[in-house]
Structure formats: C-alpha cells, structure tokens
Specification:
By secondary structure, this protein is mostly helical. A two-stranded antiparallel sheet has the order 1-2. The chain starts with a helix and ends with a strand.
Length: 97
C-alpha cells in the first residue's frame, strides 16, 4: 500500500487541502507533537502519535507539491556527511562544540 498517496487522497476528499492552510496544518502538527511528548513522558505507545504527525506533514507536502521521498532526500543529503557527537543528550555538530 502506498500510504502517502492514500493519505493525500484522504485529505483531498475531506477538503483539507483547499479548505486549510499551511499555517493551520502547522498548528495541527504542533498539537500532535504535544501528544507525542505526553506519550513519551508517560511511557505509552507512540506509533499513533508519530503516525498522526506524518499525516499532517503529508497534508503540507501535498499542498506544496512535494513527496516524502523528495523531502527525505534533501534531509539525508544535508546530514549524510555531518560529523559530531552527543553531549548531554544533544547532538552537537562538529565545529559547533
């Protein structure tokens, strides 16, 4: 199953592309991030929270004519050669130390 396409169509069928905005969807993403934070803090299953965030991100991608593959490709190319290390639980890029 191509969930990205199915979810994109789900958004279109419910007027969540033309009837919403990137700003609206970003606010929804932050709401879903809060739910993920709550689940992480409480040791609950996080699959639904991560999935909900991805659903919102797919909405933003569809409205901007982007695909997950395009976005991940750009992100991977940005990080693939990055060097650094974890310091007190935070990844610090080489040169930022």
């Amino acid at each position: 199953m191509n969930y990205e396409e199915l979810i994109g169509q789900w958004h279109k069928d419910r007027n969540l592309i033309d009837g919403s905005t990137d700003k609206d969807q970003y606010m929804k993403l932050i709401q879903e991030a809060g739910e993920l934070s709550d689940s992480l803090c409480k040791g609950k299953d996080i699959k639904d929270d991560i999935g909900d965030m991805m659903v919102v991100l797919i909405n933003i991608m569809v409205r901007n004519n982007l695909t997950m593959d395009q976005c991940l490709s750009v992100a991977y190319n940005d990080i693939k050669d990055r060097k650094g290390k974890m310091i007190d639980g935070v990844f610090v890029k080489e040169g930022d130390e």
